[in-house]
Every structure is written in C-alpha cells, then in structure tokens.
C-alpha cells in the first residue's frame, strides 16, 4: 500500500499537524530509499526486521542521535500498525523492536528574575515590534503555549469578556487558557498599534509588513531577548513553556491543572517538568518538617 494512504490517514483521521505528517513522510521515504539501495526494492510493505535492523545500524554509523533514530523508527512502527489495521500484513516486523536508550535531557528553565528583567527591559519602548515582542514573551510565560499555537492565535480567539484565549493545540484540540490582567493590558496595547499596520491577516501576531509571524522569527525574538539576561545554553520558546510549568509547580499548582493548561494528553508528558521543582520542594520540606534541620 502506498505511503500516501498512510499519510492521509494521519492527517484526516488522526488529525496530526502538517509538520508531523511531513516528518513521517521524510522518515518513511528515507527507509524506502535505503531498501532500494541495499536490497534492490522500494516496496517496504513486506520487509523483515533484519532489514530494518540494517537500517538502524546505518543510522547509528551516520552519527545520528538515538533520540532521532527512535523518532524515525516510531514512524515506521506506526506505518506497520496501519498496514495491520488495513489487513495489508498480519504481523508487524516491528513487533519485537525495543527503542534505543537515550539520555534524559534536563531542560533548565529561566528564573523568575530573568523573565522579569526581559519584560522590564522593553517596558518603555513604544514602537510596534517592541510592544509585540513584549506581549509574545508575556503570553508564552503566562499561558505555557507552544510556538505553533502562539503563531496561529487569531484576533477572534482573544475574549476579554471571559478573560481567555482559545488555542488550537496538537491534533486540532481546542483549549481555553485564562489571561491574567497584565497580559490583557498588553494585548489591548498591542491591538491598538496593530490596527495601524496594513494587513489582511486574521492572526493576532504579524510582522511590521503585515504578514503572519513565522517559526524562526519567534525563536529569534525569544533568543535575542533572553541572551541579554541569561547565560543558559538554550533560550527558546519551549524553555519559556518549561518555565511556566516549573514555576506553577513550585508555587504548589496541581499537576493535573498544569497538564490541562499545557494541553498534554497524558500526565506522563507533564511529569517531565516536575524534576525542576524538586529543589523547591526540598526547600519547603526543610522549612516545614518538624525533624528537619532548619539551620
């Protein structure tokens, strides 16, 4: 069965984002090319695990990280599950495959002071880009939304009456996130100056030329701002999302509530943020427990 049917299934039935579907397509095409070069066939429907293992070895020898290899194999595994579901094969060649071991990456969140310093640094700037960029930082930090979610927010998604913003998350799942007062003030300020830009875009965030914001620009905005106040190696929108979750948990927020705000489908995804809160928990424990050494 051609790969395109599987990709249509991901897009139309599973509601995967275009970005994810393209990633799956690239991974399957890479495996298909490998089979053609190594085994003289581009038909990957009836391959065996020995052939897949040869591909894994070639990927490892190419110095591709285990994390990236696991992602490629995950695409392959999903493809063969689809072939089973559509009765194209009886048993998946990936049935006994075990993911390669990966070292856990510890994402270090921005401190509250670092975020405060970034927001204060642009407090008195009144040009369009400064007002927009400050709002982007505030929205990331106060809502924990993903970069793609921020880019796709429409003006109509902001509700000042209910004090919420509607976000379209992974697999087109909608969620409503509360807007704190300071963000509402920044939003109104931005909307006033945005109205002066000629644009046909319905999206909330635009460039000074009236075009929709794009991934690399959003990354550059965050990276540039936080490079001035932080020495952390990674300075990205995801670190702001990480900071949002960590700081909420530090202040005693319920894990399930943070899960809902982040738009995670399972609690396991949210639990990766809890390790950053352990230091704060230990501090609280030492201050509160009768047997602890408070000195």
Counting DSSP E segments of at least 2 residues, the number of strands comes to 3
Uncertain segments of ≥5 residues (pLDDT<50)? none
Q: How is the main sheet built?
A: 3 strands, antiparallel
In helices, the fraction of residues equals 40-55%
Rounded mean pLDDT score: 88
Beta-strand percent range: under 5%
- Envelope shape: elongated
- Helical stretch tally: 13
Give the helices and strands as they follow along the chain. HHHHHHHEEEHHHHHH
Kindly name the structural category: mainly alpha
N-C termini distance: 68 Å
Rg, rounded, reads 23 Å
Trace the largest sheet across and list its strands.
1-2-3
Can you characterise this structure?
- The chain has helices spanning 3-13, 18-39, 49-61, 66-85, 112-121, 128-143, 147-151, 181-194, 215-227, 237-250, 255-262, 267-271, 278-288, and strands at residues 158-159, 164-168, 174-178.
- It is mainly alpha-helical.
- Helix 2 (18-39) crosses helix 4 (66-85).
- The termini are far apart.
- The mean pLDDT is 88.
What are its keywords?
3 strands, 295 residues, 55% helix, mainly alpha, 13 helices
Q: How is this fold's topology laid out?
A:
Layout: H1 3-13, H2 18-39, H3 49-61, H4 66-85, H5 112-121, H6 128-143, H7 147-151, E1 158-159, E2 164-168, E3 174-178, H8 181-194, H9 215-227, H10 237-250, H11 255-262, H12 267-271, H13 278-288
Antiparallel strand pairs: 1-2, 2-3
């Amino acid at each position: 069965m051609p790969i395109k049917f599987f990709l249509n299934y991901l897009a139309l039935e599973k509601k995967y984002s275009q970005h994810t579907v393209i990633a799956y397509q690239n991974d399957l095409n890479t495996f298909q090319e490998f089979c053609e070069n190594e085994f003289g066939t581009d038909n990957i429907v009836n391959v065996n695990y020995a052939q897949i293992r040869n591909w894994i070895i070639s990927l490892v020898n190419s110095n591709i990280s285990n994390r990236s290899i696991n992602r490629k194999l995950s695409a392959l595994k999903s493809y063969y599950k689809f072939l089973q579901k559509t009765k194209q094969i009886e048993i998946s060649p990936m049935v006994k495959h075990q993911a390669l071991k990966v070292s856990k990456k510890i994402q270090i969140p921005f401190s509250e002071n670092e975020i405060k310093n970034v927001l204060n640094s642009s407090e008195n700037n009144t040009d369009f880009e400064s007002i927009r960029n400050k709002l982007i930082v505030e929205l990331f930090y106060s809502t924990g939304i993903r970069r793609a979610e921020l880019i796709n927010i429409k003006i109509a998604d902001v509700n000042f009456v209910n004090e919420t913003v509607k976000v379209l998350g992974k697999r087109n799942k909608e969620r409503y996130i509360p807007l704190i007062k300071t963000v509402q003030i920044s939003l109104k300020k931005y909307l006033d100056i945005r109205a002066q830009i000629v644009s046909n875009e319905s999206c909330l965030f635009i460039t000074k030329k009236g075009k929709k914001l794009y991934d690399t620009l959003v990354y550059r905005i965050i990276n540039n701002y936080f490079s001035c106040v932080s020495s952390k190696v990674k300075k990205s929108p995801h670190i702001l999302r990480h900071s949002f979750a960590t700081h909420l948990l530090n202040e005693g927020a319920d894990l399930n509530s943070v899960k809902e705000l982040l738009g995670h489908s399972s609690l396991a995804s949210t639990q990766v943020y809890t390790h950053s809160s352990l230091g704060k928990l230990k501090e609280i424990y030492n201050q509160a427990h009768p047997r602890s050494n408070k000195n």
